[in-house]
Amino acid sequence: MNVTFRVFRFSPGVDKEPHFDTYSVPLKESMTVLEGLLYILDNLDPTLSFRFACREGVCGSCAMFINGSYKLACQTQIGELKANKIEVQPLPNFPLVKDLVVDLSAFYEKIEKVLPYLTAKNDVVEKEQLQSPVERKRIDEVIDCILCAACQSACPQGWTGKDFLGPAVLIKSYRFIADSRDRAGDERLKLVSGEDGVWRCHSAFNCVEACPKHINQTAAIGSLKRKAVVRKLLFWKR
Ligand code: FES
């Protein structure tokens, strides 16, 4: 049995305009969308471009728009889509590099802005900094973010405000603010409390729906908003 893949294609400088190409792929048991794309690349069309690395839902590089939903191609079995046609498009709202590959440079630059690393409480760390189960629980969910950028792509505030930090970047900040081992919470809150930070989020919940890791970004951003208000009340002169 074969399944039809309808794949978005555009090669700037070569194609006049974007279009879809159709391929017939032999279906194997438990075959994923990524395996289907690899079959196309190996057997039908070596010019097709897409990203992947880990093939196990860890690196985030295979996030795509599959049959109208945000998904990781390596974690999406063709059978579970319950469709005889698989339509694959690049992540919307990012500049296109080629075919299914988008330019994530601006996304990575935003992540850098929010200091995406732990600032340990002691300058010299001589041994592990332990956390209690309760402290660890606070970051259990957000620590699962693999920076696939699906939520970033789905956020309507990002469609109109190019400088909005976006859900993935805000939860990267939250991940360290909520971490009991980190001491840079105040500086972090300052970075996400500006015009393009938490207040631009209108809780549309698109991010929650898009996230392949089932993270509740809107709840984390809500927590950041409350912390930002408290910070403002406590340190209003700053
Ligand atoms: Fe790494 Fe899919 S290839 S998440």
What does this structure look like?
By secondary structure, the protein is an alpha+beta fold. It folds into two domains: 101 residues, Ubiquitin-like (UB roll), CATH 3.10.20; 124 residues, Fumarate Reductase Iron-sulfur Protein, Chain B, domain 2 (Orthogonal Bundle), CATH 1.10.1060.10. Helix content is 33%, strand content 14%. It is built from nine helices and seven strands. A five-stranded mixed sheet has the order 2-1-5-3-4. Strands 6-7 form a two-stranded antiparallel ribbon. A hairpin with a 2-residue loop joins strand 3 and strand 4. The longest helix is centred in the last third of the chain and has 18 residues. It is elongated and about 60 Å long. The chain starts with a strand and ends with a helix. Bound molecules: FE2/S2 (inorganic) cluster. The site of FE2/S2 (inorganic) cluster has 12 residues, from loops.
Concise summary:
The chain has 238 residues and is α+β, with helices and mostly antiparallel strands. It is built from nine helices and seven strands; from the N terminus they run ββαβββββαααααααα. The chain has a five-stranded mixed sheet with strand order 2-1-5-3-4. The protein has a two-stranded antiparallel ribbon with strand order 6-7.
